[in-house]
Design brief:
There is one protein chain. The protein has 209 residues and is of the alpha/beta class. It has one domain: Rossmann fold. The protein contains six helices and 15 strands. The strands form four sheets. Strands 1, 4, 5, 6, 7, 8, 10 and 12 form an eight-stranded mixed β-sheet that branches. Strands 9-11-13 form a three-stranded parallel β-sheet. A two-stranded antiparallel ribbon has the order 2-3. It starts with a strand and ends with a helix. The structure holds uracil. The site of uracil (URA) has 10 residues, from helix 6.
Length: 209
């Protein structure tokens, strides 16, 4: 079963509370989403592999830790996932970025795939699939299906807010994928919005309606 990690760091919680407020406008929303994404990137990279390397300081030769250089890629689910990319790149500037386009059909609430562009070697990379809202789980499940179909083996899902329904669906569909979110909310309403949530993340990030 994919583990659920709710990042309860005070800075993350504080910033999540800021963007839940409906009075917060596009510019601040975007800025704070980026900040949360950076903090979450710090948490989700906690287990990155390191190796011993020798470094010569001005004082002495010493053996210290360095990343093994295992390749990673950030995979935003379009469009709202884009809001988390720059925050991740702050900490992992060399990461490749794959894009996966899914939209939610407003009638059926089901995700539809319309665009997939990945680095060629996703089978050798650790992939961070980012999407602010894990609602029904449909988009995340389909995005991860699409990545696995192309050879991906190591995937983590990173979001801001999840509904219990989405967590359960994702864990059942992809038990090998760990889930990282800043908040686990109460439920999904009949319109497919997370309650209390923060509204439509894509619209709030991009100033659309
Ligand atoms: N997508 C959003 O942007 N918000 C929700 O509450 C649910 C899905």
């Amino acid at each position: 079963m994919g583990e659920l990690h709710v990042i309860d760091h005070p800075l993350v919680q504080h910033k999540l509370t800021i963007i839940r407020d409906k009075k917060v406008g596009t510019q601040q929303f975007r800025q704070v989403v980026n900040e949360i994404a950076t903090l979450m990137a710090y948490e989700v990279t906690r287990n990155m592999a390191t190796e011993d390397v020798v470094v010569e300081t001005p004082i002495a030769k010493t053996t210290q830790k360095s990343l093994t250089g295992k390749k990673v890629a950030i995979v935003p689910i379009l469009r709202a996932g884009l809001g988390m990319v720059d925050g991740f790149l702050e900490l992992i500037p060399a990461a490749k970025v794959g894009h996966i386009g899914m939209y939610r059909d407003h009638e059926t609430l089901k995700p539809v795939e319309y665009f997939v562009k990945m680095p060629t070697d996703i089978d050798q990379r650790e992939l961070f699939v980012v999407d602010p809202m894990l609602a029904t789980g449909g988009s995340a499940i389909m995005a991860i299906d699409a990545l696995k179909k192309r050879g991906a083996k190591q995937i983590k899902f990173v979001g801001l807010v999840a509904a219990p329904e989405g967590v359960k669906a994702l864990q059942e569909a992809h038990p090998d994928v760990d889930i990282y979110v800043a908040g686990l909310d109460d439920y999904l309403n009949e319109d497919g919005y997370i309650v209390p949530g923060l509204g439509d993340a894509g619209d709030r990030l991009f100033g659309t309606k």
